[in-house]
Amino acid sequence: MIGDMQKWSPNVASIIEHAKQFHPETEVISRMVSGDIHRTNYDEVCIRSRKLASALVKDGYKEGDVIATLALNTYRHLEMYYGISGMGAVTHTLNFRLHPEQAVYIINHAEDKIIFVEAPFVPILEALKDQLNTVEKYIILCDQSEMPDTQLKNAISYESYIEDGDENYEWPQLKDDAACALCYTSGTTGNPKGVLYSHKSNILHAQASLTAMLIKPSDSILMVVPLFHVLAWGIPYYGPMFGLKLVMPGMQMEGEPLFDLIDREDVSLAFGVPTIWMGLLAYCRENNKILSSVKNTIIGGSALSLSTLQEFDEVHDVNVIHAWGMTEMSPLGTTNVPTLEMESMSKEEKYAIQLKQGKPIYGVELKVVDDAGNDLPHDGESQGHLLVRGPWILQKYFKAENDAVDKDGWFDTGDISVLDQDGYMTIKDRAKDVIKSGGEWISSIDLENAAFGHPEVAEACVVGIPHPKWDERPMLFIVTNTGEEIDKQSILDFLASKVAKWWLPDEIIFLKELPHGATGKLQKFELRDEYTNYYMENKNA
Ligand code: AMP
């Protein structure tokens, strides 16, 4: 028997319309490229999104066209999320830190028809323009007076483009499961793969996310996560859905400008990856500043370390919510919010739980399997491949012929995890990064976190390097606080008190900086490639 309720073919534009109607005055703050702070609200963002949508329709663009953005976190990017997707086209967010070859591949693969580009990124596209086969027009995110001198085809300023758009544009009724947005994975091998989200999956993901991160209607949210990275974890949708004040840092992600923005905009909830928070915490430490308005911070994208958790808690009285997800999951899979039981725990016990990636949000199913695909017990010890399933999880990569899931709908995340009796999931490693030593596994993440606890270590990276006897052995790369080398033995002694003896790295290498990818993740393959013969040549075997 079929239920008698109304059919639902959602359009994300209904979110910004809701915000306009019920939270019109709620502010949207952006730090612009110039450094100036721009203030607008949901009423204006909605009207300008309608104008953009109608300008695109007038210009001949239609449902299903793919339209790209190469843009920073500002109100204009938010308008594009609604203006482009709302008229039925697909918003394709491009990462401005992509390697040029990857950018060309992605733009051609997606068949982008327009690229909306931030003025400072115009030179990036000018260098690539002759290889971009499908782009018909470039819209520069500025007003007419700020237009750069450019050779980009049919270049026009954003403000001129939307100027004559219709303020009263009416959003179309879209087909069931209509495509909404497109992001490519930051894959380290092979070509990047596209994940094509639907209006429905984005709305369901946003609604579920709202239940899982202690978000309150009075929150002022700092959106450090880029709008080009997995749709900024859904904030551009659930922010307006819940009437939250949005604070966007534009280009300035260093400690000082972030602190300044947090302070002046009374930010209560901040979202970002660990590397950004390390910069902010270092700035606060060196300048005796306290994050007094911030109540919660959501940290995901890479593993949270104990020292970051402790510093947020003990110095700033900020609660850390550890979260895990991935591009293929829209992205949210698990979050770790305080429970009643935690209230009566010691700090150490509480921290031990907070370092786990958390419990699945409603709608996401998780399981861990061995190499043969057998389910592993939820005992906090059995580690295996983490598989996921749910309505905002990928079925198939963009333009791929085959599904990316098994016959029962499970998607293999590529992460190695354990599940425990209480339902918490802990990431041990990426399957490709876990170190296979003498038939046992060493978690590079656990070893990095242990090294990171050393008072003189600013950043740590552990990589499995081929070894003649043990298959692979860990190598530890360190950036110290001063940038100078320190006594290796002192680090080994420190680690020996935290991990099993056979986990200790066979070599420690000091670097001035670690290789980070376009979304802030460590590029371990670069170090692995560079040092791949190190133990084989018996330098330290
Ligand atoms: P991306 O698709 O670029 O967002 O990368 C997703 C991957 O980042 C996941 O599969 C994990 O390996 C990693 N990741 C995300 N969040 C966390 C976290 N909280 N702890 C450890 N790894 C994480």
Q: How is this structure best described in words?
A:
This protein has 541 residues and is an alpha/beta fold. The chain has three domains: 13-252, Rossmann fold (3-Layer(aba) Sandwich); 363-430, Luciferase, Domain 3 (Luciferase, domain 3), CATH 2.30.38.10; 435-537, ANL, C-terminal domain (GMP Synthetase, Chain A, domain 3). It contains 16 helices and 25 strands. The strands form five sheets. It has a nine-stranded mixed beta sheet, with helices on both faces. It has a seven-stranded mixed beta sheet with strand order 7-6-5-3-4-8-9, sandwiched between helices. Strand 1 and strand 2 form a beta hairpin. Helix 1 runs antiparallel to helix 2 (42-58), helix 2 crosses helix 3 (75-86) and helix 9 (255-264) packs across helix 10. It starts with 12 loop residues before the first helix and ends in an 11-residue tail after the last helix. The mean pLDDT is 95. Adenosine monophosphate (AMP) binds at residues 185-186, 230, 300-303, 322-324, 326-327, 331, 357, 413-415, 427, 430, 519.
